[in-house]
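Section 5.1 Outputs to date
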Amino acid sequence: MNEAPIDYLKVGSLKPNFRDINLIAKVVNIGPSRAVTSSRGRVNHLVAEAFVGDETGSVVLTLWDEQIRRFKVGDVLEIRKGYTTLFKGSLRLNVSKSGYIEKVDEKIEKVNTRNNLSGVTHIQIPWRTSETGPFKRRKRR
């Protein structure tokens, strides 16, 4: 049984709120890790930001716990079932709990760091404060 070919996005095409992203990107930089406490269960985690990209652009990838130690600068990563979010107006790439991130033997010679998608500030309007939220309520009489 043949698997369907995987559609990989290029980093330069990422936008906020994308889901089920598959892409291949090279690690340009990994920032220092810091401890955070989850809001659910009050569990302590380590989190670090990796700057990754390809020839079309670059973005910040959030790494958690053991992922921080598994990868280093120069590694090329395959990300499956990723998603994008906005953190303080900045685009972030994340890996879902059902997704995975692995080092692969592919070559990305040059990373386009000029097209830094995380360097662009997005204005996020919370739906709760907007006049027309995602759900319209009927007025009770």
